[in-house]
Amino acid sequence: MKSNINYRINKSLFIKGFIIFLAFLITLPLVSIIYYVAKEGFATINWNFFISVPKPVGEVGGGIANALVGSLILVVVASIIAIPVGIMCGIYLSENGENKLSYYTRLAVDILQGVPSIVVGIVIYFWVVKPTGSFSGLSGSIALSIMMLPIVIRSTEETLKLIPSTLKEAGLALGLPYYKVMIKVILPVGMSGILSGVMLSIARVAGETAPLLFTAFGNPYLNTNIAKPMQSLPLLIFNYATSPYDEWHNLAWGASLILLICILLLNLFTKLLTRRWKVQF
Amino acid sequence: MRQKDPGLQVKYEMLFSRTLVITALLILILVIGLFLTLLLESLPSIQHLGFGFLFGKTWDPVSNVYGAYPFLVGTLLTSFLALIISIPFSMAIAIFLGEYQPTGALSAFLKNIIELIAAVPSVIYGFWGLIVLVPLVRSLESKIGVVPYGIGIFTASIILAIMIIPYAASLGREMISMVPAQLKEGAYSLGATRYEVIKAVIIPYTKSGLFAGILLSLGRALGETMAVTMVIGNSSIIPTNIFAPGNTMASVIANEFTEADRSLYLSALIELGMLLFLVTVVINVIGKRIIKGFNT
Amino acid sequence: MESPILNSQNFNAYFGNNHVVKNVSMEIPRNNVVAVMGPSGCGKTTFLRCINRMHELIAGATTSGIIELNEENVYDMHAIYVRQKIGMVFQRPNPFPNLSIYDNTIAGYKLNGIKLSKSEKDGIVESSLKKAALWKEVKDSLHKKGTFLSGGQQQRLCIARAIAMQPEILLLDEPTSALDPISTASIEELLHELKKNFTLVIVTHNMQQAARVSDKTAFFYMGELVEYDDTKQMFTNPTDTRTQNYITGRFS
Q1: Is A169 a residue whose pLDDT tops 90?
Q2: Chain C CB within 8 Å of residue B6 CB
Q3: Is residue B5 predicted with pLDDT exceeding 70?
């Protein structure tokens, strides 16, 4: 009897140890990725790296200015499209618990969240690229904005649902029209949650490649015209990483490092901001 | 001084409410539009190739022959292999964070790691895989005596496994942390060990939720494009073993879409996209339903 | 005799098919405190929320009948205008958590985009907080967030916010039910002061409170207005047996 209990206790402890071991094994690939990106990336980066465009094969040096500018424009334009639409839709869903439209829209958001990004690229190719006759930064931004929408909508809806209805009533009872209550009372109170959703969605699409393959397409030259093909950091990494040339690999490592730092900063910033702006009820 | 023109207020109010409805409708139309576009553009392929498309074993655009079977096999192999590799890790993380140590420095550390794993862009996983993982797999392959490509289904599965762990792990953690304390205390009071409580109370109680998390991570794996494209070897021949190079539905689209010069070729690729869309829709809707059922 | 400030005629309110306020007719005289009491679920809060048209914000809620403010049917006016004329204080204090005490007080102006000069604002803030008996306690921390105050102070801030709009009537929906006895006493004391400038309608499930603060009392039971009379009369010599039963604690 006694030995049986000891056996069970030891078994429990052993399994706990095993589970902890398995759980923390996940740090290994992450450390390896960060190590390689940092090691190879820092070796490449210098001032020139930021201000020049890639050089043809065989020439040493060159930079990723085209991809930096392109990524920035793509993400900013995508945000301009996705944030207002996403927040408005989130408000609608938080205000309309269960009606037909909110039911189907919620279903649509669920679907959108799971749509493979490459599929979005295909569709935007037919919606924008084919009619306009050219790959373009704008089409890339539209594709990215579709990837952002479900994240912004969901975080807005979830945040606003948590705000006590008494606040809305307080605003209405002061004689404020409904739209002012939503815009001036409810949105500011939920700002930290909504912003964190927005930032996460930006972090997410900043690293997206697949929806840009058939839309923004990439561009070896510096371009700020959103009607023309545009380079982005992930596209550059994809193209140069899969090339057989060492110089291009180096550029890809440098670009990876910059991209990774940007995304990590966005994530970190989101956390700080959420803590800082949190409104107490 | 405090009267504002009520007529104007009413107008703005209507405008605001209408805009809300319109944006909600827009999202709905967007998703319907996604599907209709895919359907419309894949019609030539559906009409020409019919069901044979799914079972055709040859994909040879040069001779205008399009069979999707190699990609279906490639997709299912990589995704399920990735799932099998990821489950022990994601469940271990879920149990650790949900049950052993819901709070504290160690769990905060692990949570951050999981968030970082989810935040790293797909293309960086692919690059890392190409430079770091491929040589490792290659040396493994030459040790066990298969053709040492390095790239291939197996390598793609490992990378996919790493990428999908956060989804199943964080959902699983949420589910496990929702197990009512009375249930666990009931078992403890009967003299159960921690492991026995996990096995007899927590896992049975949360199994539908854990399943949903794994299902949703499968959805991610099926649609993941870049990392897979970079390491799978892009071969349109049916893989004969898990170390062989192959292609998934997503990777073949990524590789060939912009070079598809014939309309049937392009249409066949889009049909692959539509299949991918439909499969992920079904998986996501089922997964979300299970989670919703669990929460209420 | 002066015409009543508020006059309800055969007023009904519904939630879907649920008839929650039944044929209520009552007149509320100016500068009075009128208490509305009754067991929970009797329709007293719903009736209060019909006066400033908050009831209709709930999906499926409808009304019929007339409520007149200064002989004009509030259901013929725009709801926004009604709510500016009839202020409301809720069960739980609900200051805007993102605004300071100062901005909370003038929230009705600020959020509605009504431009005021600095001196106008200062004036409204000071006089409203004074009327709400909060000025002394907060005058040195006006720019702190309203949510740092205690529950009783928050509720007085909400009263200040409502009276800053210079309403004619102030509706109070069980304003002390979430407060401790000391805060409750200070709010009750405040009601006596406020009566000089405003007409107050207070919903309460606490009979003692009704007896302490009001000039007239209405007793609601199962959606009906059973009895409405001077408070003294009501508590010493009620005419209806249901009122009698309620006052003597035979049901709750």
Answers
A1: yes
A2: yes
A3: no
Contact assignment for A175 to C158 by CB distance below 8 Å: no
Which of C97, C111, C162 lies at the smallest CB-CB distance from A281? C97
- Which CATH number covers residue C30? 3.40.50.300
- What is the amino acid identity at position A60? V
Residue B273 to residue A118, Cβ atoms within 8 A: yes
Do B247 and B213 reside in the same domain of the chain?
Answer: yes
Which candidate in A174, A183, A281 is best for mutational testing of the C interface (most C CBs within 10 A)? A174
pLDDT of the residue at B225: 95
Across the interface, of B1, B2, B10, the residue whose CB is closest to C78 is B10
The secondary element (H helix, E strand) that includes residue C205 is none
Cβ atoms of C50 and C68 within 8 Å: the answer is no
Residues of chain A neighbouring C96 (CB-CB closer than 8 A)? 167, 170-171, 185, 189
> Do both B27 and B147 map to the same domain?
no
* Same domain, yes or no: B135 and B216: yes
pLDDT in tens, B125-158: 999 999 999 999 999 999 998 889 999 999 999 9
Residue of C nearest to A166 (CA): C94
Is A105 close to B125, i.e. CB distance below 8 A? Answer: no
Q: Calculate ∠ Cα C198-C3-C14, nearest 5°.
A: 75
pLDDT digits (tens, 9 = 90+) for A188-213: 999 989 999 999 999 999 999 999 99
What CATH number has the domain bearing residue B270? Answer: 1.10.3720.10
Assign A3 a pLDDT band (cuts: 50, 70, 90). Answer: confident
pLDDT at A280: 65
Q: Which of A53, A94, A6, A18 lies closest to A219, judged by CA?
A: A53
Task: Count CB neighbours of C130 within 10 A.
Answer: 14
Query: Which pLDDT belongs to residue C59?
Result: 83
Q: Please indicate, yes or no, if residue B236 is contained in any of the structural domains.
A: yes
Question: Using a CB-CB distance cutoff of 8 angstroms, which residues of chain C are in contact with residue B2?
Answer: 84, 109, 112, 114, 165-166
**Are residues C165 and B2, on separate chains, in Cβ contact within 8 Å?**
yes
Contact A174 C165 (CB under 8 A): yes
Give the model's pLDDT for residue B1: 38
Predicted confidence at residue B61, as pLDDT, reads 93
Domain assignment present for residue B1? The answer is no
Do both B23 and B84 map to the same domain?
Answer: no
What is the average per-residue pLDDT within A229-235? 97
- Do B16 and B28 lie in one domain? The reply is yes
Q: Residue B39: give the domain boundaries.
A: 6-51
CA dist., res. A230 & res. C244, Å (int): 82
Identify the residue among C56, C57, C76, C78 best suited for mutation to test binding to B, counting B beta carbons within 10 A and taking the highest.
Answer: C78
The answer to whether the CB atoms of B4 and C113 lie below 8 A apart is: yes
Does residue B81 belong to any structural domain of this protein?
Answer: yes
Overall number of domains in chain B? 2
Amino acid identity, residue A185? Answer: V
pLDDT on residue B4: 53
Judge if B22 and B82 occupy the same domain. no
> Which residue numbers of C have CB closer than 8 Å to B's CBs?
78, 80-81, 84, 109, 112-114, 116, 165-166
Closest Cα to residue A108, out of B32, C129, B67, C230? B32
pTM over 0.90: yes
Domain membership of residue C252 (yes or no) is no
What ipTM describes this predicted complex? 0.94
Tell me what the mean pLDDT of segment B188-204 comes to: 93
Which residues in chain C land under pLDDT 70?
A: 1, 251-252
A260: CB partners within 8 A, 6+ apart: A34, A37, A41, B120, B121, B124
Of A275 and A167, which is predicted with more confidence?
A167
Read off the pLDDT of residues A36-45 as tens digits, 9 standing for 90 and up. 999 999 999 9
Which residues constitute the domain of residue C19? 6-247
In terms of domains, do B236 and B100 share one? yes
Q: What is the 3-state secondary structure (H, E, C) of A111-152?
A: HHHHCCHHHHHHHHHHHHHHHHCCCCHHHHHHHHHHHHHHHH
**Chosen from B38, B226, B258 to mutate, greatest number of chain A CBs within 10 A:** B226
